[in-house]
Amino acid sequence: MDNSGDNSPDSSPVTTDVEMESFKHQFVFVYGEHCKAASIENGSPCGANYSELKDKAASLYQLTESDFFLEKYLNSPFNTYVDLEERDQLASGQKIKIRNKVIIPIQIFGGISTAKEAKIADVPNTADVPNTVDDEADASGTSKDKQANQLTFQGGSWINNFKIPQLPANIKQKLQKGATDLKMAEYGAILEMVFFRVKPSTVYPTTSQYGQIIELLFQEYPSLSLARENMSAGQVKKLWIKRLEYKFQNLRKRHKDEIPEIKKRGKYTRNETTQPPSGKAAPMWGLINYLPINQHSEDEETITKHKQWLQTEATKKYPNISRVQAAMDMTLASRRLWIVNEQPTIKSVREEYPWLFKSEQQVVEMKRLLGAESEDYEKRFKRGLKNWSLAMVRYGRKQKKSRLPNCFQHISDAIGLSRDASKKDDLMATAALLVLPSLFREKLDSFFEPNEDGTPYIRCDEENKPTNLEFGHAEDEVFEVVLDDTVLTSCKSFLSAVMLLIAGIYMFSIVNPPSLSKSFTFLEKVVLGLEDDQPLNRSLITVVAKLNALK
Q: Is 0.70 surpassed by the pTM of this model?
């Protein structure tokens, strides 16, 4: 019997659809001055591979894949980038830099430069750039330094006669003046010049030779060896050695086809082990958890349940605060992705996460963003301000009365009369904040004025403004931190209002008020010690030096 026309279920092929589990991984891609967050979805719970990252980078910035390579960011204390290999797989939350294979030279060797002068913020290949005008050449046109390297290479004892190359004039001038912090491109320039000075002898220095090179660098420019905050001189040396190792590692890969020593070792493979992915986001805006990964194995369903519970708990008279803290911890990654990527209105955030609008939780949220091991945000803010408040008050006392509000002298006098140590510190900090804008020729009134661009400000009754002599220690003061006509929080002191104003800026990923941009940069970078990859403003450096002289 012919069954060709039989369409019964028994004769139909059976197919089964198996859904593969999907995982979403979040990354930050940096290209020149641009920075974009993007997600890659695949079937791996471990992260994204090199090919997927390259595809995403190309689509984000409309690039041809053959024209660029990728680097991953290594967190503190290295704060540098290393090349990604084709076999690498990155966990979610990493920061990735896109670099052109054909680097467009910028004038870093002729004077101060910025990334705006080039297609990307990179250092030119020092092999193609004259070392400096200080290198003397003989009649044959060969510089003395090149002759020295050639001779020591032939003798085999290059490290015994090694000399630090002449640095670009602008970097050399900074270091001779005692500068301890340079731009990332300037650090790169120093290390790259060392590589090309060593290259005629070897591109594989030993561990001890890396250490000797850094010792010579420190002898030439002592300011580079100085201890930093939270970092001893010994740790600074180790950090420089590790930076130099990474620079050699990167440049060996880029020049593997040109350097016989690498070819003699066989096919290029990266035997050096880079720091394993930490699973943490890069410290953008100085925040360890700017874009954290999900540490609690939460999915959309559980996060939705947490949010619903938090919303209900916020309406209760006696909420379970310990459970609130735990639920806010578990929803942090989801919350940050939503706020950073979708930039919701403040009212929308309030509906989704009402606990972000309570001052106690704002302090806790800042601790989450700063990292689990960080100091309590309020303590960190007050401690950092205390380090500078005396010098700021001394500066204020030297100014004409017309430059400061009426209440400054009143608070300044009250400092000496107070016998309560905590109250005395708060009065000193309040007086310092009143002085702060004048250090940068900004206006104190800008704290209390709505901004056209919608950035946050402090709202209070007219009688509670600094023009009132009782400002700073009146019992009935109330200050509200306002953004987009929405009250983020209210508090009873100007000091707390400024602290929570900064918290609001970071929590909702918004810019500083333009009219107080330098004052806020001081509070963020100097008082709170938040470090990012943005260069310090010259006026900030000047003010810090001025205050140091008054300590």
A: no
One domain, residues 173 and 87: no
At a CB cut-off of 8 Å and minimum separation 6, what does 205 contact? 159, 198, 213, 248
Predicted pLDDT at 310: 94
Strand partners, 90: 48
Edge-to-edge strand list for the sheet holding 95-100:
34-42, 23-31, 95-100, 68-74, 80-83
User: How many domains does the structure of the chain reveal?
Assistant: 3
Tell which of 231, 264, 297 closes a domain.
264
Please write the tens of the pLDDT for every residue from 174-198: 888 888 777 777 887 888 889 888 8
Q: CA 538 to CA 439: how far, in whole Å?
A: 13
3-state secondary structure of 236: helix
**Widest distance between CA atoms in the chain:** 111
List, for residues 195-212, the tens digit of each pLDDT value.
Answer: 888 888 888 888 888 889
CATH code for the domain in which residue 88 is found? 3.10.20.90
Residue among 42, 50, 74, 69 nearest 283 (CA):
74
Distance (Å, whole) CA 75 – CA 292 = 13
Q: What is the pLDDT, as a whole number, of residue 430?
A: 92
Q: Is residue 225 within 8 Å of residue 237, measured between CB atoms?
A: yes
Q: What average pLDDT does the segment 373-400 reach?
A: 89
- 525 and 406 part of one domain: yes
Assess whether 68 and 175 both reside in one domain: no
CB atoms within 10 A of CB 7: 7
The boundaries of the domain holding residue 56 are: 23-100
Residue 10 pLDDT exceeds 50: no
Is 90 in the same domain as 154?
no
Are the C-beta atoms of residues 369 and 408 closer than 8 Å to each other?
no
pLDDT for the residue numbered 215: 92
CA distance 409 to 301: 57
